[in-house]
Amino acid sequence: MEFKKPTSLLDVPTHYCPGCGHGIVQRLVGEVIDELGIREKTIGTAPVGCAVLLYDYFDCDIIECSHGRSPAVATGIKRVLPDRVVFTYQGDGDLAAIGTAETIHVANRGENITIIFVNNAIYGMTGGQMAPTTITGQRTTTTQEGRGQNQEGPPLKVCELLASLDGVTYLERVAVSTPKDIMRAKKAVKKAFQNQIDEKGFSLVEVLSMCPTDWKVSSTAAVDFVNNEMKEVFPLGVFKDEK
Amino acid sequence: MTKEMKLVIAGFGGQGVVVAGNILARACMAEGKNITGMVSYGAEMRGGTANSTIVISDTWIASPIVEKPDVAIVLNQPSLDKFEERMAPKGLIVINTSMTEREVERADLEVIKVNATEIAHQLGNVRVANIVALGAFLGHTHILEMSSMIGAIEALFSQKKPGLIEINDKALRAGAEVMVNA
Amino acid sequence: MSATTAPGHTETGKKLLLKGNELMVRAAIEAGCRFFAGYPITPQNEVPEYMSQLMPKVGGTFVQAESEIAAINMIFGASAAGARCMTSSSSPGISLKQEGISYIASAELPCVIANVQRGGPGLGNIRASQADYFQAVKGGGHGDYRLIVLAPASLDELQDLTMNAFDYADYYRNPVMILADGLLGQMAEPVDARPYEPILELPEKDFVLDGCKGREARVIKTLFLRPPKALVTHNMRLQKKYETIASELQLCENVQTDDAELVIAAYGMTARIAKGAVDMARQAGMKVGLIRPITLWPFPGPAFMEVAGTAKKLLVVEMSSGQFIEDVKLATECNIPVEFLGMGGGWYPTPENIFEKISAIYDK
């Protein structure tokens, strides 16, 4: 088997740290765009956070948005160009903290877009502060004794939250911490794009991902953290799948 | 009319002050007069009185603001309380005696009394009290031709509520009659 | 005052009686605006309301956004996708939009933003105000950027400038703000509905993100990390564009300034009211004129300097506590005395107020 970059991704090295999950997730998105043959009709949004440089890696039209506002920007694009494919790629701070209102309302309006939500339980780009999805007890630079000591509340569960909204078509939580998980993740990403092509409405895939640098652990320990800790708090599975 | 006339129509929400202002403004437009109009908005509309203010002039109008009305058409008691004291000296006040409980207190004001709601009720629709009061004002001042007013009424209602044209025409004439007979 | 009988966009040629807010919607749609996102706030509510009625009739999109922030970001997206687009709000809502405006300015995307100003600071009140002058012309959001700021003084001019705003936005690839106020938005006066005709030769939109079929993929971004001087280069280019705009787009009205000893400086509705005071003063034998910037940015500095060369004194009138006056003093380099009449918080000048002030300072 030949290992090639998807056409939808540029052949350049990324800035992601060793062991980071973003590279895997972006590859999955690139493969799906290739397989669906939609590169030339796709517009993606880049978030604020580690994935901000996404526009240097994808070979399709990309707009970089302000922190948390990708769903609103995507709404503007999709409503003007309803026959194009529009996806957002957002991290946990972007989607579940500063952009919570945009997330809930884009979902509730049932905008026919695809959201790829990378949950690594930390603010990566800014250096390891608490994310809305940081798990209880997890140490970060702003929860040095572990989340839960200073009334931070428990981690926010995005799929569970959005599942209650009637406007939502498809929600699934996956991971990229094992080969099996990655295969499952690709299926979910593909379904989320296919739904949009089929005009089925709003789809979001939450991807549990590794951040060894800001978790301050080795790459293998980061994989273990996703498998043993994060999956406990954020169970994998389909949360909504409207036909 | 030699100068600007600043006019306010005030009443409860639902007494049709906006519609009355609209008809008056359109009749003025039909006669080539300059007008500006404003209606109370936002929190001003909650509780008590709503109002429509119109400036009518033969020349260019600098400001749409009516701080001291020359003319007030007041359809209820709170509007009388609010606008009597604010009126310009020697202004003209038209009061709907069916809905006001006291006389006008200022001696300098010219007062026209019309039992507009009662007349509207007799005509078969209390909601045209606003137009009865407008009719009384025009019957007294003659600043506009009746035909301009009737044209404005027809233009306003012809598309969506043609059934209301006749009763509004009647209300306008009935108000004007009151003044002829007074 | 005519919400119940609001006409459609097909009334070109007719005499319209609409509120300023409604007229602005009509003019925008006439000019080809096909995407609007906004949020309710008094005194601009007629804008989203009327947009929601008219947009579907022309195949356009109206979105009642979940927030002012979402609304401006929907505009960011719609503009990137190539639509003529617009949002509107009133002062507190415009404050919320500032982050998005900064991004749009940096990304050089065309759009129109209307601010139907109300009293501030804070929640303020819902009366008209001009206290967002600094915010509109000096920045508002972060970074070195400029908005083209238009200040209509009548409904007729509101119709023209709303249409022109879309052309300026497309021509310069820059956000344009219509700086109105609660008086202009809420008042009605007869206006001849006119058809839209472009006033500029508009460039092709070669930035649009509509999928990279048959071309290289495009990126719209505002982050410039590498090389280290990338942001400097970007900013220098922006500044060059602003210099071009400043040299090409200064609009100003002079009223009887030729022989005037005292010239009133005012913009928007205040200027209209001040014109009434000029008439009163002239009747009283005083040589009074009016200078009214129509573009607040770029500020028509040379026109002010010219007036400062002939008049003895200026009187600035504004519905705020002294913001516009700073630009007047800068533009005239304080060559002649500048008197002031203004207040924040929903204070409306009357022609009589202004005449009184004129009388008090004319001979002093």
Task: Note down, in words, how this protein is organized.
The complex is a heterotrimer of chains A (243), B (182) and C (364). With 243 residues, chain A is an alpha/beta fold. Chain A has eight helices and seven strands. The relative contact order of chain A is 0.16. Chain B is α/β, with parallel strands linked by helices and 182 residues long. Chain B has a six-stranded mixed sheet with strand order 2-3-1-4-5-6, with helices on both faces. Chain B has a single domain, classed as 3-Layer(aba) Sandwich (Pyruvate-ferredoxin Oxidoreductase, domain 3), CATH 3.40.920.10. Chain C has twelve helices and 15 strands. In chain C, helix 1 packs parallel to helix 6, helix 3 runs parallel beside helix 4 and helix 10 crosses helix 11. The longest helix of chain C is centred in the middle third of the chain and has 19 residues. The N terminus of chain C is likely disordered.
How do you describe this structure in short?
The complex is a heterotrimer of chains A (243), B (182) and C (364). Chain B is 40% helix and 19% strand. Chain B is α/β, with parallel strands linked by helices and 182 residues long.
Helix-strand topology string of chain B: EHEEEHEEHHHH
Poorly predicted runs of 5 or more residues of chain B: none
Terminal residue distance of chain B: 23 Å
Helical content class of chain B: 25-40%
| CATH homologous superfamily placement of chain B | Pyruvate-ferredoxin oxidoreductase, PFOR, domain III
* CATH level 1 class label of chain B: Alpha Beta
CATH fold name of the largest domain in chain C = Rossmann fold
How many helical stretches of chain B?
Answer: 6
Query: Most extensive interface, residues per chain?
Result: A-C, 35 and 39 residues
Number of DSSP E strands of chain C:
15
- Tell me the count of domains of chain C: 2
- The quaternary organization reads as heterotrimer
Strand residue percentage of chain B: 15-25%
Helix content of chain C: 25-40%
Give the CA-based shape of chain B: globular
Q: What is the typical, i.e. mean, pLDDT of chain B?
A: 92
CATH architecture of the largest domain in chain C: 3-Layer(aba) Sandwich
Form type of chain C: globular
State the secondary-structure class of chain B: alpha/beta
| CA-CA gap between termini of chain C | 44 Å
How are helices and strands ordered from N to C of chain C? EHEHEHEHEHEHEHEEHEEHEEHEHEH
